[in-house]
Amino acid sequence: MLQSIWDDVRREFNFGNMINKIIIVNVGIWIVLALTNVIFNIVNGFATSPAFDGVMRFFAVTYDPWHLITHPWTLVTHMFVHLGFFHILWNMLFLLYFGRIFGDLYGDKRVLPLYIAGGLFAFVFSFVIIYPSSLGDNISLAYGASGAVACILTTIGVLQPEHSIRLMFLGNVRLKYIVMVTILIQVLSLGTLDNIGGTIDHIGGIVFGIIYAIQLRKGIDLAAPVGRAISWVENTWDRIITPSKDHKQSGPRTTYRRGSSVKETAPKSRPSFMRKAGGSEKKSTRQGGDAGLPDNGMSHQEQLDSILDKIKEGGYNSLNKEEKDFLLRASNQ
């Protein structure tokens, strides 16, 4: 069962939308930190372990400038860190509700840059207000996705105010009312000092969400620099893990039979399941019209490339059972 769950999670992380990937990362980090906290407390005689605070300070931000200078990565990692169950539950539910709407309407590639940009702005906003004052005297660490989630919620609410979603016990509610209630709750929370850092952080996310939405209507994506930075990191990582041409092994030699090479006899056209509707080739009638795997004459890599192309065009759900099984076997190799 655990292997099946792991395969489902890995498949969703590889081929799911960006909101699902962000949720998987957040939940995974929460599980690891929660288990680490349990182990440290047991070792410490079932008492709060000071060593775990050191672990948290490695990932969370503080309002100490020296800590930010020596731990610059925490500006990003803190928005993926949670400890309390209900803390991560509500953040991920709100992200699931409103993040999917934003991704569906404005592009999945904009989700992660907005999530990170909103979280960064929210913390900087709170730092500018809290650091010069005495509000941060009782705040040791700051973490959580609340600022980023508040940014995404506000962004989609400003861009699509008349869009309705169905909420439990409330029925269909327009996004503009959800944003108004969210802003009202945060403003009223300023009347108490309970989680004052979190409240100001949420307000920072709301402010950036409003600014981002207004600029996006004008065709300006304020999170685009973050998107380019993410692409640079991905490309750099690919160059590191991809072997150079000098280290690539030469492929097998071409064999001949009956006067023609295997390469020449392999089908040159795309498999039928890769053709769009109205294509010239007949579709297989197997499994209600879904095409099966490519012909056996194709190499393993060619079959894999064809299936990945199909996922790119129609998504993972466009694959039939044989193609999904083939993809799963290939990922386990």
Note down, in words, how this protein is organized:
The protein is mainly alpha-helical and 333 residues long. It has two domains: 18-234, Rhomboid-like fold (Up-down Bundle), CATH 1.20.1540.10; 262-332, no CATH class. The chain is 61% helix and 4% strand. It has 14 helices and four strands. The protein has a two-stranded antiparallel ribbon with strand order 1-2. Strands 3-4 form a two-stranded antiparallel ribbon. Helix 8 (146-159) packs across helix 9 and helix 9 (175-189) runs antiparallel to helix 10. The protein is globular, with a radius of gyration of 25 Å. It starts with a helix and ends with a helix. Residues 259-268 and 272-292 have low confidence and may be disordered.
List the helices and strands and how they pair.
Layout: H1 2-15, H2 18-43, H3 50-59, H4 65-70, H5 74-77, H6 85-106, H7 111-130, H8 146-159, E1 164-167, E2 171-174, H9 175-189, H10 196-217, H11 224-241, E3 256-257, E4 260-261, H12 262-265, H13 300-314, H14 321-332
Antiparallel strand pairs: 1-2, 3-4
Helix pairs in contact: 1-2, 2-6, 6-8, 7-8, 7-10, 7-11, 8-9, 8-10, 9-10
